[in-house]
UniProtKB/TrEMBL annotation:
Chain's role: Produces ATP from ADP in the presence of a proton gradient across the membrane.
Database matches in PANTHER family: V-TYPE ATP SYNTHASE SUBUNIT C
Domain of life (superkingdom): Bacteria
Similarity comment text for this entry: Belongs to the V-ATPase V0D/AC39 subunit family.
Keyword Ribosomal protein: no
InterPro entries: ATPase_csu/dsu_sf, ATPase_V0-cplx_csu, ATPase_V0-cplx_csu/dsu, V-ATPase_V0D/AC39_subunit, V-type_ATPase_csu/dsu, V-type_ATPase_csu/dsu_dom_3
Gene designation per UniProt: atpC
Protein name per UniProt: V-type ATP synthase subunit C
Keywords on record: ATP synthesis, Hydrogen ion transport, Ion transport, Transport
Amino acid sequence: MADDYGYINARVKMMRGSLLENRQLDEAVSAATYAEYLRVLSETPIREDLGDATAQGAGLGELDAALSKNLFRVVRKVQGLASGEAKKEVDTLVARWDLLNIKTLVRGVLTGRSSQDILAGLIPAGTIKWGVLQAAANSTDLASLAQTLSIGGGFLGRALRQAVSSGTNELLDVEVTLDQEYYRAALSAARGNNLRRYLAREVDVRNILTALQLRGGTVSARYFVPGGSLSEGDFLRIAGGDNAVSNSDLQPLLEAGSLDRAEVLSRLLLDQAAKNVAMTDVLGAGVVLDFLRRKEIEIAKLRLIGRGKFYGVPGDSIRQELGNA
């Protein structure tokens, strides 16, 4: 383990060579059958974790388990490379999956979804142990969920517990509270300006998407997440219907025409921002940030392609979905 990004990034760049190339993803999309899709995967670095996915009678459940295992193993390997202050930064980046998983749990419990459905939406790559997430998925209400995550759910689990104890029970209120806590911790842990700028960009994107979501309804500053370049006043102005923003990179999100399209553009914007950080932050956390993001996207694409092949969706339709993913 090292507190030196020169060593960590050299190892991560070697791991980047194991990511699937566009050629391999296209070959998976072009597979004539689901079995052929699995054969394509068996010729990639994913094969190490395929396990029961290739057994006779196996289906999407086994594929999901295999892809989750691969993501979990790769993320843990990256975490294992760092120590000291560098590990704090890497762990904060990995905790982003804790944020997503707790939001999935909250959304699932508030909408009455089954524990099985909730578990299917979780990503086994954060810092919270899978057993804790499994127990949380069995919660019957928000209070019991918060109680379960207050032990073993890390700083976000404790933030959820505090929010629920103070009477917060609406989905958007809970999600914004978790975002505020995550970005406060992430910006505090970030040592370099490049990583701080990337996190600030994520905050800006989050605030714009929330502001667009609030249009036509109740607008409140309590939904604003500090830490980005946009001010609370900008947030309220955009939520009120104003489409002007001083940062030209963010302008396309306000001109997207729909929230769905704005979310697609947001992902593309953050993908490019992560790549830029990786190129300019060669002795900082940028390379790790970009690699983890690329790995998550790879696994998401393989899940989507696998479902398409399993249900016989034409390759062109899958390619279109990948473009919108």
